Amino acid sequence: MNYIQTLKRIREGRTDYRKRKAILLGKHVFATIRISNENIMVQISRASINGDVVLASTHSRELLKYGWKGSSKCTPACYLTGLLAGKKAKAAGIDGCIIYTGLRGFSSRIGACTKGIIDAGLDVPVGEDALPDEDRITGKHIADYAEMLKKEDEELYSRIFSRILARGLRPEDYVKHFNEVKDNIMREGGD
User: Fold this and answer.
1) What is the arrangement of strands in the sheet containing 29-35, beginning at the earlier edge strand?
2) What's the pLDDT tens digit per position in 96-134?
3) Which terminus of the chain is less hemmed in, N or C, by CB atoms within 10 Å?
4) Can you list the alpha helix ranges (DSSP code H) found in the chain?
């Protein structure tokens, strides 16, 4: 039996070289979206011989500057982070990009982030059916769940939403709060 050595980044599950090759040969500007257990990061980059050059970058912690009090990893935060990244990219003179997920799958949160980039004015080739619906993007599902939970079990409600409540946001007001922060980003974002 022969041993076939694979590249370290393939073994670690970090790089899909077929997708990477297509980006390099196509000379595309690409958006990389990374969602961790606590935050979201979006980088819009261009590949070069010496490595990727980051043209615009946004982290979900930046949403705090615009008044965000909700979770920094939920679907509405993904959308707002994508919107902010798109505004920064437009300010840097970028008109379009492709989404590069690497070995990760295309999830609804990545779809929300992509929708934010599109709404900021960038041209991104993606099918509308891959993007989450407006109720999920605005956080209506969170508000509905919070209302239902508050009626049924007050203790569980306060335990699940403890971080949001500590920041001064009632989860039932998620949609209103989302729209306020979105307006702030559209007014000020990308500078």
Assistant:
1) 53-59, 40-46, 29-35, 98-100
2) 999 988 777 889 999 999 999 999 999 999 999 999 999
3) N
4) 8-11, 17-26, 75-91, 108-119, 134-138, 140-152, 154-160, 162-166, 174-188
- Rounded CA-CA distance 30/16 in Å is 15
Report yes or no: 187 and 84 within 8 Å, Cβ to Cβ: no
pLDDT of residue 101: 85
In a domain, 5, yes or no: no
Amino acid identity of 53?
A: V
Using CA atoms, how far apart are residues 76 and 116, in angstroms rounded to an integer? 10
Encoded amino acid at 121, one letter? G
CATH number, domain with residue 170: 3.30.420.100
49: nearest Cα among 16, 32, 25, 13: 25
Query: DSSP state, 129?
Result: G
Domain contains 4: no
Quick check: helix, strand or coil at residue 103?
Answer: coil
